[in-house]
Amino acid sequence: MTAEATLASTSVSPTARQVWTRTRGVLIAVVILLIGALAIAVLRSGTQHGRLDPRSASPYGSHAVTTLLADQGVSTRVVTTLDEARTAVGPDTTLLIAAPDLLTQHQQDVVHRAARDSGGRMILIAPETSVGTLAPGVSADPAVAFDSLLAPGCELPAARRAGAADTGGLRYFIRGTHADACYPSNGLPTLVRLPAASGKGDTVVLGSPDILYNDRLDEQGNASLALQLLGSRSHLVWYLPSLSDVPATDSGNRSFFDLLPSGWLWGTLQLFIAAALAALWRGRRLGPLVAEKLPVAIRASETVEGRARLYRKAGARDRAATALRSTTRTRLAPLVGVPAAQAHTPEALLPALSAHLHGDSRSLRSLLFGPPPGDDAVLIALADQLDALEREVRRP
After folding, report:
1. Domain assignment of residue 121, given as a range
2. Of 14, 61, 182, 198, most Cβ neighbours within 10 A?
3. Which residue pairs, CB below 8 angstroms and at least 24 apart, start in 195-203?
């Protein structure tokens, strides 16, 4: 009973108060971060929609140009799905695709067919990988234009009236088709207008979105060029593609790797190399062990108590019982004339103990080589019995 009380009083299991004391700082910090993020989201949820969003009044939004178009009688409709964009096109409609490269190959084909047959205008903002499908005969140059402000350099009436504008960005090659190539940079245009084969409608490829931003609209000829390109029809459909806008017909043809970003392979390789270097760094040999004297003297009772606490915390009654029995056998063997090498062999130790004590070897076998105890009370009783056995053997 006394031993059980001692073990209970020295338990190192943390209480609820201790757990709260240790973790309250982290929990409070997480709560503050969540409240801050929520407050920022609420404050920016009004007019802050995103880049090239006609509802956004931020510097990189496009609310200003749609306001000017509304003054000229041009209505603007924002769509976010392929079906909405496809059904909205028509001869009196301009379809602007803010991020063409987010469209899948199937979506590009659907939009191209719908715009080609509608007789309206389609405007592509800085397309790179998608330009070959949406504007056949045009391909993007990997090198971007370093000059932002460029002169028209073509006979397109909208460009000549606007004059110099911030169109520098992606440059384009034109092959096998007649097109207006405007605002050249080092010989390659940054604005391309492709007339439809039917003679009705056209496609405009714009290498940079700068002329549509709120904070750039009042510079140079940006406003004039933007209003002429977007206001040639009475209706403007502003298509904002998203990664979540995947039609059902695409889902069966897309693998898991198609859904990953383009740089995932290189990123995975970098992580693998970093993990290998970290493993080599942490797994290096530190050299042979060096014996060092402890700076203070530690009482044996403290060591025993500390080890007992670890056993109790881990619930390792089997290991504790094994340690007690092994130590007892090691001390008993020389007392009954058994070599130290055979101290843990029942066939050598038990007969010698039975002859010395004139007792039953079966009870000694259970005590010295028996199964692990089932609970703490049995373990304490085992320790008491082993102490009693050793005292009996040592008695003259």
Report:
1. 63-247
2. 182
3. 196/116, 196/119, 197/116, 198/116, 198/119, 200/91, 200/119, 201/91, 201/115, 201/116, 201/118, 201/119, 201/120, 201/121, 201/122, 202/121, 202/122, 203/115, 203/121, 203/122, 203/123, 203/124, 203/134, 203/135
